[in-house]
Amino acid sequence: MNWSISFEPLLSWPLFGLLFVPLLLLALVGLWFRQRGSALRFIALLALAAALLNPVFLAEEREALKSVVALIVDRSQSQDIGDRTKQTDEALAGLQQRLARFKQFDVRVVEAGKSEAADERTETRLFSALEGAFRDVPPSRIGGAVMITDGEVHDVPAGAPEFNAPLHALITGNEHEKDRRIRFENAPRFGLVGKPLDMTYRVISTEGDGAPVDVRVSVNGEQVSVEHATVGQPMKLSVTIPNAGRNIVQLGIDREPGELTDANNRAIALVDGIRENLRVLLVSGEPHAGERTWRNLLKSDASVDLVHFTILRPPEKQDGTPINELSLIAFPTRELFVEKIKDFDLIIFDRYQHRDVLPILYYDYISEYVEKGGALLIAAGPEYAGENSIARTPLNAALPALPTGEVVDKAFYPRLTDLGQRHPVTRGLDGSASEPPHWSRWFRTIGVKNPEGEVVMKGADNRPLLLLDRKGEGRVGMLLSDQGWLWARGFEGGGPHVQLYRRIAHWLMKEPELEEERLTADGRGMVLEIRRQTMSDDPGPAQVITPSGKTVTVKLEKAEPGIFTGSLRTSEIGLYQIANGDLTALAHVGPINAPEFQDVVSTENRLKAPAEATGGSVRRMAPSSTLANLAGGVALPSIVPVRSSAAASGDDWIGLRTTDDSTLKAVSRVPLFGGFLGLGLLLLAIGSMWYREGR
């Protein structure tokens, strides 16, 4: 209960001063000259002034407020190591029980590190959680904070925390913990496919430098070498990037006896493989309206080195043209088709026919080139159906279909077959979803018999239009029309010739994105996304092996023709292995080499400076501690309420501050000159003055 007196004047202060200041001066003059009755007049004046000032006696009833105490509990993944989770749970229960004895504390428990956000699971951000706990609390009501953690905190402020209250930290884990880890020191983000890529790494141990350690090096899940590393020293590493697109380089070391965890015995680097310029040999036959379509497309691609020659006239055509008006140099056919044929990624014959420009033996070299992994594309015109067709050369062993000799000159819309709707070369071509397709017509189809491979597009009378086939280790494509230039010229609105031609060329050159059967996975936040590309109607579920070794089945749902997808929400950070049928894939969920696992040894050092800056303390809770008070299997300090200026920690106790803040519940109001009491005192004073004056 608080007591006070307040004035509630009946007149405004200016009017009150104007009225009583002259009277007060007269009364004081009378007292100075000791006039008779001046003392009674002065008392009467004071009584009248008191009545007009209206003093009020106030009695306030207040309720003391509680200090807010935050218990910040570290639930990050490093707390799952050993007995740390058990120690954390026991410490939390013990602190809550002890704080419940003190009615002056309002306890708020905040668990940090359990969020699904990737950045909050890969770093221990306890001070962010502490700031959130006190966001709505006035500074005068903050009693302090207690952190239960292993000490590996990644958002420790440079100076003292921004609140005037003690910060205490109770450290889980045990003293003299032992751990060994590996990390990349330098890992380039990009590398050339098939070329060595230089990296550096380091093996770190709590026991300092030691004997050499065997380091297993894997690329995309396949072990490629075992390196010998010296602990504590930067080591050089050279790996060859096998594929275009994402590649996963993983380093691994064996778990040492007595080591805390092997979660950081692996290091991951993601390297995007980039192909060197692709070498394409384009051989054009008789000039035609679409002769430059392939050339323009390939020349516009900065990643393609194009070698192009055109047979403008057959050797037997002798018209007397002077030799100096013909080609300035002899075309190096032997060098291209014999000596350096293996250097080309793709050979294209565009309306080419055999006219003895190339020796017959060279076609055999081309067939052998395909069998050993090369790529061949036939852009067929009427020549393919004629007597000089390249199908009548040794090249026929590599061709997916032989001509019937028929050329169908008939308008038609190129359409996707059922296979073509699922095949990555033709799936989702712009304009293919409507009927008729939203592109222009073509007017010629070359007839073939007994086509091999996959017919992904059909022409007039449902004849094969685009064939894709595998021959040995290589690939062959055949486009049975020379009318693609109509799309390039914008006839009847044109069509997606660039999209189609580029996909054909890249499929022939074995780009991973265009494989018919492909399994990929990627981590987005804490979600593993799986994508299965297939020609089948149902690939079945995917099997996922988590970083901890658990096996999870993920159902794959059809997203579009030839594409099935699935996702898995997870709480583990690390490398996941995905399998579906004969295909496997690797994916990393969460940031690469997250700070959460870079150092997992419990420590008091990181929190010591901010705790001491607030008058708090940092101490371990292991049973080997010198503290006497045990809560279950951990040693907890006693809790003592302290004033704001008092010490906040001792050898076996921690202090939390109490607040002087309170809330007003009720006010009792008693006017001192109100009612008959005030009237009586005023009349008594004035009557005494008159009585004295009358004598």
TrEMBL record:
Name recorded for this polypeptide: Glutamine amidotransferase domain-containing protein
Top-level taxon in the UniProt lineage: Bacteria
TM helices/strands, residue ranges: 12-33, 40-58, 672-691
InterPro entries in alphabetical order: Class_I_gatase-like
Organism: Mesorhizobium plurifarium
Stored Gene3D superfamilies: 3.40.50.880
Coiled coil: none
Keywords: Membrane, Transmembrane, Transmembrane helix
SUPFAM superfamilies noted in UniProt: Class I glutamine amidotransferase-like
PANTHER family in alphabetical order: BLL2462 PROTEIN (PTHR37947)
